[in-house]
């Protein structure tokens, strides 16, 4: 197995250690696997200065040349897939096959945005003779990006790819618990010939870094993926400087299971997907609203498959679910389960931590959970599913929308009219029917309500990193 990488900051094209550092732990063993340098205010100021210089160069670089760097970096990461995946499993805990897939997903984000870099078209607006109105797109400037710990490779890739493809520079504050993915992205881009200062990678105290960067006038966009509470705080900071934000925040994804669906297939695929990444996914299916006529059969199949999930160290063959990424998630899940049970919910399987070292929590299913339980309103962000019966599709949609979140929503049905009602009625930025896939590089991804605003991916993604400028040109003075 490849060793865990030696961790550094990356500022102005140079790798940097610091006087202060933080431990990085393997959540499957609770052993320290690395020391992460902690950025000082001086380091952040250096990154700001480097990003300003990098933007002056990169914003004037032809889009086709930007694309070449991104494509080359993606190719390098594909070649280094095993090394990167091994590091991700060590720091995050996810099974190695899932880590390998995440590396490829990160590469796909780079590749998609590389192609989009050459397609940020403007337009000419019809006008009178001798007058031209032209809509033009330009990179917005330096981006302050913040990526979470649940996907150490693909989430930083999304921020970096969008910013760099658009012609921006970016200072990325990646997650301290899972720094290796972002480090490997920076290495690949450095090896691919990215000019100094275009990408700067820092770690450290999240509040200190965000407060310092967002207050700087040269930061022209704040791009964040994480919890709704933190997203609202960062948005408030940015609003004081009229800095635009791109926010991909929390979800609490509903799944409506209609009476006409293939019950066994829907239940099994739901249980498998719920436990992917130990449920630590912002689009993870969590609140299942099942038509009462198939509720018992669906619940039985779901519970059986959830209980069969192979849990263990992500490096071991056959493991389907690793540990939670940190001990904070154990406390959060335990509290939610205890609260639901105290209010009359039924525990169908799981519900507690597992013996031995590591942050392991059993795949858990609760049924007939009252609306007053906290888990009906709070995203568990772990391997916890709630299954409740509904009498009709209308009731299912009403229950699905009864939270402040709207990132992803799902439905299982073979009826065209049901599918149409789900697509129109569910309040979410991403609605999927008969599939639990909500995000692809080529599709726009983002939420509504408290799940954020703005979109990453698709043809819409790069426009968040650009300004729209209207050019008016008259041949004579008027």
Can you walk through the features of this model?
The chain is built from 13 helices and 22 strands. The protein has 478 residues and is an alpha/beta fold. Strands 14-15-16-13-12-18-19 form a seven-stranded mixed beta sheet, sandwiched between helices. The chain has a six-stranded mixed beta sheet with strand order 9-8-7-10-11-21, sandwiched between helices. The longest helix has 22 residues, at 96-117. The termini are far apart.
In short:
This protein has 478 residues and is an alpha/beta fold. Helices cover 37% and strands 22% of the residues. The chain is built from 13 helices and 22 strands.
Please describe the structure with a list of short key phrases separated by commas or semicolons:
Aldehyde Dehydrogenase, Chain A, domain 1, 478 residues, 6-stranded mixed beta sheet, 37% helix, 22% strand, Aldehyde Dehydrogenase, Chain A, domain 2, 13 helices, alpha/beta
SSE blueprint and pairings:
Layout: E1 9-11, E2 14-16, E3 21-26, E4 31-37, H1 41-58, H2 63-79, H3 81-92, H4 96-117, E5 123-125, E6 131-139, E7 142-146, H5 154-166, E8 169-173, H6 180-191, E9 199-202, H7 206-214, E10 219-225, H8 228-239, E11 245-248, E12 253-257, H9 263-275, E13 285-291, H10 295-307, H11 327-342, E14 346-349, E15 364-367, E16 384-390, H12 393-400, E17 405-406, E18 408-412, H13 416-425, E19 430-433, E20 448-449, E21 452-453, E22 466-474
Parallel strand pairs: 7-8, 7-10, 8-9, 10-11, 12-13, 12-18, 13-16, 15-16, 18-19
Antiparallel strand pairs: 1-2, 3-4, 5-6, 6-22, 11-21, 14-15, 17-20
């Amino acid at each position: 197995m490849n060793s865990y990488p030696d961790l550094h900051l990356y500022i102005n094209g140079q790798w940097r250690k610091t006087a202060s550092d933080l431990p990085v732990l393997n959540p499957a063993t609770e052993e320290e696997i690395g020391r992460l340098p902690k950025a000082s205010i001086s380091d952040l100021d250096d990154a700001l200065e480097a990003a300003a210089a990098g933007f002056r160069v990169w914003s004037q670089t032809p889009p086709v040349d930007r694309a070449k760097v991104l494509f080359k970096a993606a190719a390098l990461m594909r070649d280094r897939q095993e090394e990167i995946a091994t590091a991700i499993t060590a720091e995050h805990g996810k099974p190695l096959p899932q880590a390998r897939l995440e590396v490829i997903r990160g590469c796909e984000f780079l590749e998609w945005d590389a192609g989009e870099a050459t397609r940020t078209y403007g337009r000419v607006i019809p006008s009178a003779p001798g007058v031209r109105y032209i809509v033009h797109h330009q990179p917005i400037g330096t981006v302050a990006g913040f990526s979470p710990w649940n996907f150490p490779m693909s989430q930083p890739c999304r921020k970096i790819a969008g910013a760099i493809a658009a012609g921006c520079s970016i200072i990325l504050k990646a997650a301290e618990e899972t720094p290796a993915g972002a480090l490997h992205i920076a290495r690949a881009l450095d090896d691919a010939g990215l000019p100094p200062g275009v990408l700067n990678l820092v770690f450290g105290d999240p509040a200190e870094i965000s407060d310092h960067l967002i207050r700087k006038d040269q930061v022209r966009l704040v791009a964040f993926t994480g919890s709704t509470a933190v997203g609202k705080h960062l948005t408030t900071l940015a609003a004081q400087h009229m800095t635009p934000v791109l926010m991909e925040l929390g979800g609490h994804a509903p799944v409506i299971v209609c009476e006409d669906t293939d019950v066994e297939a829907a239940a099994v695929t739901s249980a498998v997907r719920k436990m992917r990444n130990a449920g630590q996914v912002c689009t993870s299916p969590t609140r299942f609203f099942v038509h009462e006529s198939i509720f018992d059969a669906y619940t039985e199949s779901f519970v059986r498959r959830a209980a069969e999930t192979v849990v263990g160290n992500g490096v071991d063959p056959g493991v389907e679910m690793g540990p939670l990424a940190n001990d904070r998630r154990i406390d959060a899940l335990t509290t939610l389960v205890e609260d639901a049970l105290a209010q009359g919910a039924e525990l169908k399987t799981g519900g507690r931590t597992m013996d031995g070292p590591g942050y392991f929590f059993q795949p858990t299913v609760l049924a007939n959970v009252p609306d007053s339980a906290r888990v009906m309103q709070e995203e568990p962000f772990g391997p916890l599913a709630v299954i409740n019966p509904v009498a009709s599709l209308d009731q299912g949609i009403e229950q699905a929308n009864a939270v402040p979140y709207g990132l992803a929503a799902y439905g299982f049905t073979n009826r065209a009219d049901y599918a149409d009602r789900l697509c129109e009625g569910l309040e979410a930025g991403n609605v999927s029917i008969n599939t639990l896939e909500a995000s692809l590089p080529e599709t726009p991804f983002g939420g509504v309500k408290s799940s954020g605003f703005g979109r990453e991916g698709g043809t819409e993604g790069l426009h968040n990193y650009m300004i729209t400028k209207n050019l008016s040109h008259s041949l004579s003075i008027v």
